[in-house]
């Protein structure tokens, strides 16, 4: 038996219409400590993916009905499975086939006859990467759950995180932001107020005006939120949004009193949609504003120098057009 450090535990799905090939992969991989599942066609492979946690898929390209390219396309198009590494196994060495494999999202390729050492090396490498990705996903899930639990304390903010995620992503895409910044906006929409975990409920849920001391504590939540999320390297682009979504262009915001372009564009986007959502949501101290009243109020605040005028202008166009997730709650409910 090989020492445990020589293999990576994981579950591998082998899809091949030839029984001899399935048996060969099963023998090679099982002897190295992997759990191996087999499927005789593409449809069966997809069924297995819905039933079992799979760490890697070995797909024969030349299968009847659903071939390897088609199965890979379906795996990568499904949000539940797209992070699973897919290795295409083929007797074909034509450049065009590899290009097609890359196009459908394959993570690696193996050419028959399969070399045992090459197979194990690639499998181990991809499964290690998958396990790191799983750890990252779990860490993100914990943060998202914490953020939603904070939101859940206040019935008046129900759905706030989801709306901000949708609003800010739609606006970021409309403005032509790079994919990395759009992803950061999606995450920040959920976790932007996670620092409120350090704010006592008596302050967080207080319907009356906060005292100076209470307000000072409330204003610490962006810094606390940044500190909570800082250990995740994948949140590097999210941290500036968390810290600066309460800044104002004229420097009167918090926590750092940044002015103008010193405020990251992603934070300027989130603050605009955050204000809009707050205005169009009923709170203990006010009714929900209509779309028109909310935009008019924000227009006055833009004139005061609080929000980015260009971002607000683009945002207003999207809201009035009813594009995507910008159909206002007020307009939709007749408020």
CATH class of the largest domain, anyone? Answer: Mainly Alpha
Describe the oligomeric state of these chains in a short phrase.
single chain
Strand-and-helix sequence, N→C?
EHEHEHEHEHHHHHHHHHHH
Rounded Rg: 25 Å
How many helices? The count is 15
Q: Largest sheet, if any?
A: 5 strands, parallel
Count of beta strands: 5
Given helix and strand content, the structural type is alpha/beta
Strand order of the largest sheet: 2-1-3-4-5
CATH architecture of the largest domain: Orthogonal Bundle
| Cα distance spanning the termini | 70 Å
> Hey, roughly how much beta strand do the residues contain?
5-15%
CATH topology annotation of the largest domain: Hypothetical protein af1432
Q: How many distinct domains?
A: 2
**Unreliable residue stretches:** 1-8, 327-335
Average per-residue pLDDT, rounded, comes to 88
What's the shape? elongated
CATH superfamily of the largest domain: Hypothetical protein af1432
Helix content percent band: 40-55%
